[in-house]
Amino acid sequence: MSEEISKAARNLFATDLNCAQSVLVTVAKAKGSMFDQAASVTAGFGGGIAHEGLVCGAVTGAVMALGLLKSRQITDNTKLKEETNAIAQTFMTRFRSEFGSIICNDLTGIDIRDKKQVSAADSAGIFKNVCMKVVGRAAEIVAELTTSID
To answer: Looking at residue 60, what is its pLDDT?
Structure first.
């Protein structure tokens, strides 16, 4: 299932959805937790939160997905926050070990706020290659960590 989720997330990213949208929407659909505003609530998280180059949108989308899925098991908010933080830390450890960072600028190798760098990176295929892998793998890690939540 995790390979299918990875492919679905990459396919969405190839459309007009950003990295955060692609991960959250894919995971939510695959796990039966899709909601109408999933793409809307993640709209501002692409490019490292509003194109600031901060935490990668695929990571923020993944953390949102983890919280959404955990909420299906846990109704107490204090416990939900604790368990979501714990699984999110596991996610981020795995993500960092594979990609070296959770920061958009580090992952892309550019300052995402600089339009000239973004244009050059786009021409060089950075977003198509690097970001596509990151989006797919983020969704896949969430699927792997949540196999017991269906």
So the answer is: 98
